[in-house]
Amino acid sequence: MKLFLLTWFFSLLYKIASKPVLDQCEQIKKYTHVLFVTAHADDIETIAGGTASLFVKCGSIVNYVITTNGDKGWSKDYTMTSEELATIRESEALSAAAVIGVTNVTFLRQEDGRLEGVDPIELKKNITIAVRLFQPDLVISFSPELDYATYAFGLMHSDHQRTGLTTLNTLWPAARDYLSFTDLYEDGIMPWIHQRCGSLLLRLQTTFQCHR
Ligand SMILES: [Zn+2]
Fold first, then answer.
1. Ligand 1 centroid vs 167 CA: distance in angstroms?
2. Which long-range contacts (CB under 8 A, 24 or more apart) does 186-191 make?
3. Which domains, ranges and CATH numbers included, belong to the chain?
4. Strands, DSSP E only, in the chain?
5. CA spacing 20 to 30 A to 152: which of 17, 29, 167, 194?
6. What is the rounded CA–CA span in Å between residue 16 and residue 129?
7. 156 CA from centroid of ligand 1 (Å)
């Protein structure tokens, strides 16, 4: 009898604890392939890690594209080099992705803080490759709009704006237009678009702490 009551109690606890996730899954399960396009290795974990985790928990296949190598932004001492930091950031990104359950991370490895100096067509082409190959139902990236309020939270960055704007321009029309990059078409990377494909900025906090 005791064992029965204990089993019943824990099954009740499980039902209560899992209900919110299941409810959310009902709403988002239509997104089977979710692509995050961010600028820095820690962007997803600090801004939308909980969202990425939720998609994975609900069964979505989640991929990341990170446009810079993260070789700036170290304030603890003056001994770190950009090369060392880029290596650390890439490793941290993979560790954090693994915690969430994301196994595919594409690094475009542009210099941190100087994305505005990168050839815009080349950047768009690289994101186009990721979109065409992965074929996402949902793309999540930064808003390209200038938002002063987000400065207080360290979310406003020129790399964020550039990544968000280029991602939008990739989704329409570069990803679906074979004439945009005929060499990709000739290499078998076929044009692709999904009618639900869009872009939005999510500002959810995460508990994942894989970044120094
Ligand atoms: Zn960032």
1. 15
2. 189/129, 189/132, 189/133, 190/132, 191/132
3. 24-200 (3.40.50.10320)
4. 33-38, 61-68, 104-110, 138-140, 199-200
5. 167
6. 42
7. 8
pLDDT in tens, the chain (212 residues): 555 544 554 565 555 455 566 688 988 888 999 999 999 999 998 889 999 999 999 999 999 999 999 999 887 889 999 999 999 999 999 999 999 999 899 999 999 999 999 999 999 999 999 999 999 989 999 988 888 877 777 778 999 999 999 999 999 899 999 899 999 999 999 998 765 544 444 433 333 333 44
CB atoms within 10 A of CB 19: 10
Distance 201 CA to ligand 1 centre (A): 13
Q: Which two tokens stand for residue 28?
A: 């988002």
Q: Tell me how far the alpha carbon of residue 6 lies from the centroid of ligand 1, in angstroms.
A: 47
Rounded to whole angstroms, the Cα distance separating 1 from 164 reads 59
C-alpha 148 to ligand 1 mean position (Å): 15
d(CA 63, CA 92): 16
In the reported structure, the alpha carbon of residue 27 is separated from the centroid of ligand 1 by a whole-number distance in angstroms of 28
Write down the pTM of the prediction.
0.81
Separation of CA 39 and ligand 1 centre (Å): 5
Burial class (CB within 10 angstroms; exposed 0-12, middle 13-18, buried 19+) of 145? exposed
